[in-house]
Amino acid sequence: MSYLPRLALVVIAALAIAAGPAQAQDKVERARSTTEQLLSQANQALSANDNAALRSAIQSAFDFGIWERFLTEPRADRFSPEQRARFRELLPGYLAYLYHEQFDRGLATPPSVGEVTPARNDVLVGATFQRPGGRTLPVQWRLRETSEGPQVIDVMVGGTSFLLLKREEFTSMIDRGGVDSLLSFMQQHSL
Questions:
Q1: pLDDT category, 14, cuts 50, 70, 90?
Q2: I want to staple 31 with a disulfide (CB 3.0 to 4.6 A). Which of 42, 82, 127, 143 is the partner?
Q3: What distance in Å separates the CA atoms of residue 88 and residue 73, rounded to the nearest whole number?
């Protein structure tokens, strides 16, 4: 290999290495921005008692494909195509309901975004929710880059993964009463 092709390879490698940190920082900033937007819109919706706006905020920020796959995976073979479609339809309203139940207490002070850190292919965005009596609730949002930009793929409240917690709960419901009982539960707990 002659000197020029080697030099070209060295230059290309150097440019790729230099671009890496800038791209990683851009990914972190996009995740922060998405989380700030979600928290702002959700806080406004909760303050106005506007369930449709809360659902809209959740729909724009969450990757429902990942949530659906992960939540149904242990019992995926038990879903008919119609049940799968109904699950997909109910999921945004159910997650909006969970958000409402978890975070609609003591929101006189809007939640604040804190530490943002890369985590493998994802970004963890920390936030703090103020509770009555001066207590705080730490929350981490796990976001992944998608074709639609960064989207929430998990929420950890006090160190507990909602995704794992709900997966266990859904699996247990299906085992006890079948997929229709899960869908009925989601319908009853949906905004």
A1: very low
A2: 143
A3: 13
Q: Which residue has the tokens 């230099």?
A: 18
pLDDT digits (tens, 9 = 90+) for 40-58: 999 999 989 999 999 999 9
Question: How far is CA 61 from its chain centroid?
Answer: 7
* Alpha carbons 167 and 71: distance in angstroms, whole number: 5
Span 55-110, pLDDT tens digits? 999 999 999 999 999 999 999 999 999 999 999 999 999 999 999 998 876 566 77
pTM assigned to the model: 0.83
Task: Phi first, then psi: give them for residue 187, nearest 5 degrees.
Answer: -60, -40
Domains and CATH numbers, the chain: 3-188 (3.10.450.710)
- CA–CA distance from 80 to each of 85, 86, 149, 177 (Å)? 9, 10, 31, 15
The SS3 of residue 65 is helix
Rg value, the chain, Cα: 20
The shares of helix, strand and coil residues in the chain, as percent rounded to the nearest 5, are 65, 20, 15
Task: List, as one string, the DSSP characters of 140-176.
Answer: EEEEEEETTEEEEEEEEETTEEHHHHHHHHHHHHHHH
Contacts of 116 (CB under 8 A, 6+ apart): 28, 31, 32, 123, 124, 125, 126
| Phi, psi torsion values for 171, nearest 5 degrees | -60, -45
Residues 167, 175: Cα–Cα separation, whole Å: 12
